[in-house]
């Protein structure tokens, strides 16, 4: 009897190990909604067609905001629609998701020309010093080429000529105890005229709805500062900048 019991136990352990080994590996995708006049978007990354009604309200990505989603590895269809009218496609494409890969889909454009910028960020930098990695992406459809500088160094460009849909690489900025208290402030300007278009700060204190993007929270990590809206726009479409926190 003991022999039979031991055989059963060993069999169960082996079966359990097989189940653990068969679990599919995961990657992630961050969906960022900067599409003009799209208050909310739904998106998925899957090798099967998804019923949009199955995507709950909590997973709708509001304008000028973002959400992180898990994805099984492999080649997947990546699709995004207007959450109010799911017949209105904002983006459609395919992408290869690698294990533990970090990917970002920026939904952008405006009526008649909605599109997306897809970045495969599978090798986001890791930092051991007290710094934060920051990059910029220009997703304002009617903006001129822009320059960006730190408020502390107004004559030194962090990027000099960033056109629509272009992005910079991550650059490290000091995030020591003093900067944690003061924040990191930038100015966005017309690259040709030098006219100030917007100011933005990675703050010391969380600002709703971007409650994960203080300097202290972003330290040792990476943040994308997204330039959104329309030059001359008002309300939700006003030209501005918001942060997207990465892992």
What does this structure look like?
This protein has 247 residues and is mainly beta. It has 2 domains: 25-123, Immunoglobulin-like (Sandwich), CATH 2.60.40; 124-247, Sandwich (Immunoglobulin-like), CATH 2.60.40.2890. The chain is 12% helix and 43% strand. A hairpin with a 6-residue loop joins strand 7 (102-108) and strand 8 (115-120). Residues 1-14 have low confidence and may be disordered.
Summarize the structure.
This protein is mainly beta and 247 residues long. The protein contains 3 helices and 16 strands.
Can you tell me the number of structural domains? Answer: 2
Order of helices and strands: HEEEEEEEEEEEEHEEHEE
Radius of gyration equals: 22 Å
Largest sheet: 4 strands, mixed
CATH architecture assignment name of the largest domain: Sandwich
Per CATH, what is the topology of the largest domain?
Immunoglobulin-like
Helix/strand/pairing category: mainly beta
Fraction of helical residues: 10-25%
| Low-pLDDT residue intervals, each spanning 5 or more residues | 1-14
> What is the CATH C level class of the largest domain, in words?
Mainly Beta
Number of strands: 16
Structure annotation, total helices: 3
Distance between the termini: 53 Å
Strand content: 35-45%
- Mean of all residue-level pLDDT scores: 91
- Overall shape: it is globular
CATH superfamily of the largest domain: Domain of unknown function DUF5300
Spatial order of the strands forming the largest sheet: 4-1-7-8
């Amino acid at each position: 009897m003991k022999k039979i019991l031991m055989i059963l136990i060993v069999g169960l352990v082996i079966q359990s190990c097989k189940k653990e080994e068969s679990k599919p590996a995961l990657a992630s995708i961050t969906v960022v909604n900067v599409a003009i006049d799209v208050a909310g978007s739904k998106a998925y990354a899957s090798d099967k067609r998804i019923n949009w009604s199955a995507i709950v309200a909590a997973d709708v990505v509001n304008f000028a905001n973002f959400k992180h989603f898990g994805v099984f590895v492999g080649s997947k269809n990546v699709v995004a629609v207007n959450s109010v009218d799911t017949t209105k496609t904002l983006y459609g494409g395919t992408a290869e998701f690698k294990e533990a890969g970090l990917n970002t889909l920026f939904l952008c454009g405006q009526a008649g020309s909605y599109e997306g910028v897809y970045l495969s960020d599978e090798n986001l930098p890791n930092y051991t010093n007290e710094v934060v990695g920051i990059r910029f992406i220009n997703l304002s459809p009617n903006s001129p080429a822009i320059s960006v500088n730190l408020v502390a160094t107004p004559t030194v460009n962090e990027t000099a000529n960033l056109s629509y849909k272009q992005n910079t690489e991550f650059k490290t900025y000091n995030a020591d105890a003093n900067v944690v208290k003061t924040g990191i402030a930038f100015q966005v300007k017309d690259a040709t005229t030098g006219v100030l278009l917007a100011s933005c700060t990675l703050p010391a204190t969380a600002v709703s709805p971007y409650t994960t993007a203080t300097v202290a929270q972003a330290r040792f990590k990476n943040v994308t500062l997204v330039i959104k809206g329309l030059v001359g726009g008002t309300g939700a479409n006003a030209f501005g900048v918001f942060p997207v926190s990465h892992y």
